[in-house]
Amino acid sequence: CKLSEYNLQNCNKAMKRKHKTACIAFVLLLSITGIVYLLLPTPKVFQYNTPRNIKGVVSYRRAFNDLNDVQLIAAQKHGIQPQKDRESALRIEGLEEIISCEVFDVDTLTHSIPYLVPRAKTLLYDIGENFRDSLINKGLNPNKIIVTSVLRTQEDIKGLRKGNINASDNSTHAYATTFDISWKRFAYIKEIGNIEMEPVSADTLKLVLSEVLRDLRKAERCYVKHEAKQACFHITVR
């Protein structure tokens, strides 16, 4: 009887040792699994476009054919006096700088500076926001418009005309009421958080942008000229 009791005690001790060892092994396994999980790259989710109700305009040339003479009247009414150089332009009160933000990007500017009168700046923001909202409503992944030209001084215009004889000597850009938006290039937002975005073609984005501009033009917010050679929409606030 004493022998049996002794064996039972040894058996219980052995079982406790095995249980303790198993617990330690289990904790180690969980720790190793957690470390491996943290070290592994987080799997990405891919978001496809689901395009719908994209119409654009019948003709870019006919829909956006507000010539310089028409735009110039609005520019002279709402804008500043043309300035000789950038130093004098930056001294004018009321001009507001535009910088890249959540709804548009400002391109590297070579013959202009990123300043507009307030009503033109508001128009630019509205175009960017409406474009973003339209992409969402049409099942397209987010992109931003790109501003390629803004306020030009007389020196800027003179320098531009050396390489482009078609550049207007009396440009509406001189009044800080006008900006150009590319229809060939857009700022592709590759991913949001852990979601990778499928690209959208520039042709499709141009269609959506044309709808936005058409609506704002119909609302008499702006004049628009489709520039084929410069690959941009030339826009003056009204």
- Ranges where pLDDT stays below 50 over 5 or more residues in a row are none
Overall shape: elongated
Order of helices and strands: HEHHHEEEHEHEEEEHEE
Count of DSSP H/I helices:
7
Q: How many beta strands in the DSSP annotation?
A: 11
Q: What helical percentage do the residues reach?
A: 40-55%
Structural class by secondary-structure content: alpha+beta
- Mean residue pLDDT: 90
Instruction: Tell me what portion of residues adopts beta-strand conformation.
Output: 15-25%
Distance between the termini: 107 Å
Biggest sheet character: 6 strands, mixed
Our Rg estimate from Cα atoms comes to 31 Å
Explain the overall architecture.
The chain is an alpha+beta fold and 238 residues long. The protein is 44% helix and 17% strand. It is built from 7 helices and 11 strands. It has helices spanning 2-39, 60-63, 68-78, 86-89, 118-137, 154-163, 202-218, and strands spanning 45-47, 96-97, 104-106, 115-116, 143-149, 178-182, 187-188, 191-192, 195-197, 222-227, 232-237. The strands form 3 sheets. Strands 3, 5, 6, 7, 10 and 11 form a 6-stranded mixed β-sheet that branches. The model has no long low-confidence stretch (mean pLDDT 90).
